[in-house]
Design a protein that fits this description.
This protein is mainly beta. The chain has a single domain (24-139), classed as Immunoglobulin-like, CATH 2.60.40.2470. Helices cover 15% and strands 38% of the residues. The chain is built from two helices and nine strands; from the N terminus they run H-H-E-E-E-E-E-E-E-E-E. Strands 1, 3, 5, 6, 8 and 9 form a six-stranded mixed sheet that branches. Strands 2-4-7 form a three-stranded antiparallel sheet, with no helix packed on it. The two termini are 30 Å apart.
C-alpha cells in the first residue's frame, strides 16, 4: 500500500493530532493523563519544584527548571518525573528518568506552551510514592498554533 504524505496529514488533522492542530487539552484531560501515570495512588504535594516564568511573551521556547528533593541514595531516589501542560494540544510534554547514580533529580529544558495554563510536574519515587508541583503561566503568543 502506498500512502501519500498529504493523506496521512489529512487523517491526523481529522483526528486532531496534526502538527498544526489548534485543539487544546483541557484541565480534565490533564487530570486523566496524571491518572494514567499514577493510577489510584495518592499524589502528595511537595518535594517537586517547577520554575517557569509567570508571564511568557512567546511560548515557542520557554525555559523550565525542575528539581525534586531527594537524597538520591540506593534506597531513596527519584525514578521519574513527568511534566504535563493542561493547555497544550497534548498534555504530556516531557518525561525524565533517574537512578541513584544521577546524583540529583534536576532538569533544565525548553518547552513549547500554548495559551495560559497550569504546568504540572509529577515525580515517582523509588518507594512507589508520587509527589507533585505546579506552575501557572500566562502566554501572550501561543506556540502550538502558529503556522510554519
Amino acid at each position: 500500500m502506498n500512502i501519500q504524505r498529504r493523506d496521512c496529514l489529512a487523517l491526523l488533522t481529522a483526528l486532531g493530532l496534526a502538527p498544526h492542530s489548534t485543539s487544546f487539552a483541557s484541565p480534565d484531560q490533564a487530570r486523566q493523563a496524571i491518572h494514567a501515570l499514577v493510577g489510584d495512588k495518592k499524589v502528595q504535594a511537595g518535594r517537586v519544584k517547577i520554575d517557569i516564568p509567570p508571564l511568557i511573551e512567546n511560548g515557542n521556547s520557554v525555559v523550565m527548571t525542575l528539581n525534586v528533593e531527594s537524597p538520591m541514595t540506593e534506597f531513596d531516589y527519584v525514578k521519574s518525573v513527568h511534566v504535563l501542560a493542561e493547555g497544550n494540544p497534548l498534555p504530556n510534554i516531557l518525561s525524565a528518568y533517574f537512578t541513584p547514580r544521577s546524583g540529583r533529580a534536576y532538569v533544565l529544558s525548553r518547552v513549547r506552551l500554548a495559551e495560559n495554563q497550569r504546568v504540572w510536574a509529577i515525580a515517582q519515587m523509588s518507594d512507589g510514592s508520587f509527589w507533585q508541583g505546579y506552575a501557572d503561566t500566562l502566554v501572550t503568543t501561543s506556540a502550538c498554533t502558529e503556522e510554519r
